[in-house]
From TrEMBL:
Transmembrane segments: 7-27, 33-53, 62-84, 104-128, 140-160
Xref: Pfam families: Hpre_diP_synt_I
UniProt name for this protein: Gx transporter family protein
InterPro entries: Hpre_diP_synt_I (IPR014535), Hpre_diP_synth_I (IPR010898)
Keywords: Membrane, Transmembrane, Transmembrane helix
Top-level taxonomy: Bacteria, Bacillati, Bacillota, Bacilli, Lactobacillales
Length: 179
């Protein structure tokens, strides 16, 4: 069944991710040891989508974010890098979420998402450049992925605890009522 509330939530999350990613471009990178690395603050919205929506709907958020961000300030090559990183990151985060909170935390899921995003981008870069030597950069990018994944996961964990009472309240409302 089609839900307008769900559609609004999906587009709201995607819009927030695009805006966060846009403004992140103006921030200096905290990873001076890793040229090109960013915090990936837009991934915060991906974490929220993964934990508040079914997989098919969280995928819509992630793909909308990727498509709109690339359209606004990207090129075909940035789309390829972002697409590979996003798919690998999203896939591993969904798999890890299925293990449950007793085995892996939101922070752990975010950290692995950050690392796998870098792996996906480097593999595409290696394929385009026809050289696997670029993978020598993986340890440095992995370190930045771990740090940024930790910060994004910590923030996501905090926000998810704040969203939980709102979600529980929404379930108790009679049909047709919204807040």
């Amino acid at each position: 069944m089609f839900s307008h509330r769900k559609l609004v939530f999906i587009t709201m999350l995607a819009a927030q991710a695009v805006i966060i990613s846009f403004f992140e471009r103006f921030l200096p990178t905290p990873f001076t040891f890793a040229p090109g690395a960013k915090l990936g603050l837009g991934n915060l919205v991906s974490i929220i989508a993964i934990f508040t929506l079914p997989p098919k709907d969280s995928l819509k958020v992630v793909l909308l974010r990727l498509g709109i961000s690339t359209f606004l300030a990207g090129s075909f090559s940035t789309f390829l890098y972002g697409f590979a990183g996003t798919w690998l990151s999203y896939g591993i985060m969904l798999v890890l979420k299925q293990l449950g909170p007793k085995r892996v935390s939101v922070i752990g899921i975010s950290v692995m998402g950050g690392v796998m995003h870098n792996v996906g981008q480097l593999v595409v870069f290696a394929l385009i450049g026809q050289s696997w030597l670029v993978l020598n950069y993986l340890p440095i990018l992995s370190f930045s992925g771990i740090l940024s994944g930790f910060l994004v996961g910590l923030t996501g964990n905090y926000l998810l605890t704040k969203l939980k009472p709102l979600q529980e309240f929404q379930r108790t409302l009679p049909d047709g009522w919204t807040i």
